Automatic annotation (TrEMBL), chain A:
PANTHER family: NADH-UBIQUINONE OXIDOREDUCTASE CHAIN 4 (PTHR43507), PROTON-TRANSLOCATING NADH-QUINONE OXIDOREDUCTASE, CHAIN M (PTHR43507:SF4)
Topology in the lipid bilayer: Multi-pass membrane protein
Annotated ranges, domain NADH:quinone oxidoreductase/Mrp antiporter transmembrane: 129-420
Origin species: Bellilinea caldifistulae
Domain of life: Bacteria
Keywords for this protein: Membrane, Transmembrane, Transmembrane helix
Transmembrane segments: 6-23, 35-53, 83-103, 115-139, 166-190, 210-231, 237-260, 272-295, 301-321, 333-351, 371-393, 405-433, 453-472
Gene Ontology terms describing biological process: ATP synthesis coupled electron transport; electron transport coupled proton transport
GO molecular function: NADH dehydrogenase (ubiquinone) activity; NADH dehydrogenase activity; ubiquinone binding
Family the entry assigns: Belongs to the complex I subunit 4 family.
GO CC aspect terms: endomembrane system; membrane
Protein known as: NADH:quinone oxidoreductase/Mrp antiporter transmembrane domain-containing protein
Entry annotated with the keyword Transmembrane helix: yes
Amino acid sequence: MQFPILSALIFTPIVAGIILLFLPAENRVWIRRIALVAATLILLMSFVLYFTYDVSRGGYQFLEEAKWLPQFGIHYKLGIDGISLPLVLLSGLVIFSGVLVSWNVEDRPREFFSFLMFLGASVLGVFCALDLFLLFFFFELAVFPKYLMIVVWGYPKTREYGGMKLTLYLFIGSVIALVGTLAIYFGSGLRTFDLLALEQAGFPAEFQRLWFPFVFLGFAILGGIFPFHSWAPDGHVAAPTAISMLLAGVEMKVGAFAALRVGIQLLPEGAQYWAAAILLLATINVVYGAFIAMVQTDFKYVIGFSSVSHMGLVLIGFATLNRDGLLGAGMQMFSHGVMTALFFAIVGMVYDRAHTREIGALGGLVQKMPWAAVGFIIGGLVSMGMPGFSGFVSEIPVFMGAWQVAPLVAIVAILGILITAAYIFLVVRRVFFGEIPPALDQSVTDISRKDKLVIGMLALVMILLGWFPSLLTRLIEPGVQSILALIGGGR
Amino acid sequence: MSSAFTPEMWRSIFPEIGLLILAIVLLVFDLIWLKQPQMRARWLGWMTSIGIVLIMGISAGISMPQGQGSVEWGGMLRFDAAGFVFRMIFMSAAALTALFASQFEALKKRGEFYALLLISTLGMNLMASAADLILLFLAIETTSLPLYVMAGFLTRDDRSVEAGIKYFLFGAITSAVMLYGFSLIYGLTGTTQIYELRSAFQAGNLPVGLAELVIVLVLVGFGFKISAAPFHFWAPDVYSGAPTPVAGFLSTASKAAGFAVLLRVLQIAFAGQGSLWTVLIAVLATASMLIGNYLALAQRSIKRLLAYSSIAHAGYILIGVAADSELGTLSVIYYLIAYLVTNLAAFGIVNLIESRVGSDEISALAGLNRRSAGLGLAMLAALLSLGGIPPFAGFFAKLLVFAAAVERGLIWLVLVGVFNAVVGLYYYLNVLKVIYLHPPVEEKEVFPPTPAWRIALWVCLAGILLIGFWFAPWYSLAQAATSAIWIY
């Protein structure tokens, strides 16, 4: 029998989280070690998956199946395809970085790392699930780690508000998606939650049009779709650094991914019917997010709104329903995940040292923390789609895809990227260059080696991907092809 | 009907005989240890609990009904899987409550408390298996009278006395209305046997308006037992005034007994008359969810919060009843099992905190995570299970209830349900926030609970987790009970 690597991937953080809860709270050394070991294992396993996935065969691989509740059509079924594999890799990278940047958490590190592990298990589970119920189970598993981590370890001024807002928004989204999910379950007449079987169910067009908005919007709320995006900046800003990284870097992709897998793949005709509406909302995401980011005075809010803007590109890619757009969306999910994790990591490092995130109160930090400055500039270049960085190779296909269905959308979205360039330059100039305020000159020190490792690793990934996009496109391409086959089959 | 006793008849009431004997034994020991309160405090709870577990074990061995079930005792009692599963639910709740009660100063030395608990459980057992309206009424009274006394057990505490009297008055009025409904049923059909009523109603010799009236009258009584709005007014005061273990018992076992009766009467006597009562139940469900959840938002006392939340949960469970389908019945039973362990755990923890901090305000929970990380986690599991978050029991229970309604096309009811679930999550998370974020009332505080309390909590927690992701055994139980109710 094949080694159940996907189960190992999902259960590593769960087991680590449970072990952590049983350790004595004072044992900080072992708490951090166990978290790091688990995160390293996850990262290694995701690399193993990356290198052993058979591209020539395509489709779902590393399949695992076990009975869970067969009377109700629930199975424990795992498998990954070219769309989910990059996201698994992304989760591995961000969880690992998240553990490193939280190395010095003072307050109750046991609970912190334990909940972090549960959150990691939740996202990995969603990406690997091939059973609708299992997907939903893991999706909802994230609720309490998210809430508690923001509320307990977050930014004291806004954590209670931001945490509750984020949790309730996402819970509303997920219960709406639940209603749609149940409708799909009963509507198929198959009495199964098996995604592969449901893909072939051939729902009537009426049914698809009625239920598509439920599942797509329900999940896309977690992807930050306009006008349900406002949880994102507030939640990200209120969260502690590692959780901001995971939320913006991975959780938002969980939303987008679930919207793709359940919404578009199961109800392709519904997707075609509603594509124009999604395109419109997503375009608003891009432009509106960028404009709002521009006028923020809080460093972290800039990044929070930039996430809203960039997730818009992912959703545009989905809504094009063509090869280029979907390919770009797949790339953008990975690229934005790494980029925003890097951004939030650096914002966290700056805040920990300067104790302020007001852009006006910062300045000249390149002298004190050159690594952070360089990392932020690389992230910025990715974000504005500069050639040679991963942003370019993921945004261009999205625009190409959009051009084929609605040129105006492509033009407006490209304008959004121009605004992105403007606010990124603005932030870089004000925070990292210019005069350093005297107060900061005294207090700010350089970042630790672990922080540098995080910045180096994430930046390297983005540059590599910029030069060799085929590292990921070779995976995403077959994934996109099978989605296109479903859309074609729906006609 | 022959008058000779058959072994089947004795098998069908074995658990009740056992409970009665156990109650008498307890009273005897209460007398033996008259002068030794510490012996009573130490052993009575254990004796009750172990006794019930023994009865449950033996019942599972010898009085497990076979096949579709049969009618025993001259048409009085239905001996089937539904009755069996519900009996197990009630007796588990009673066993856990007896253990939790050992943490409560004023209860643990009182043999009569445990005896009342057992008699009330006996009544519930009969409620779940009654096949005749006469026995049903007697069973409901046998259940309720000990519960009135238990709610008002702390005779020196005004709030407890008030709880007892309030509960009694509400119970008496609703019982009277329900009995009037029963008498109308008898007058209209000439029978009180639930299984015969079905054919009488289906013959269609009953005017629709009258049938509707009868159903409304009967629902008043059942609505009171399950604390559904608008028959919920007693719940907050009784839950907060009654001794905490009693409140836990009321909110789980007593509610489950109400649902057992509701399912059997509606789906057997009124089977095929679904159009008459599904809308009514859906309205009750909506009202209960809205009133329970929105009033819970404003509560400062954790017991009152749990009381309103229990009204809301009655609403969620009623969604499963309103679905009027096999999946609906199954979801109701699954939900009751999940709710049993969850709410008993929550009330158990509140009981302990109350006995240490001396307050049932939500603020008494502040910093629980720092004071005792394990208790913090236990409360987390209970609250999230109430909120319907995986991997805890409440998640799959809620999903099943909603699934049942989606299956029947009751989309509006599901939407009401899911939005209420969001409101519910809000106040559960607020309590969780107090536990994890707020500074503790006192910096370091140790909680030395009794071993009995500890074991009961562990059982509840294991239940919350197991029901939350190991669905198969509980689903099969619920399925067995469902197929015994859905025989037509």
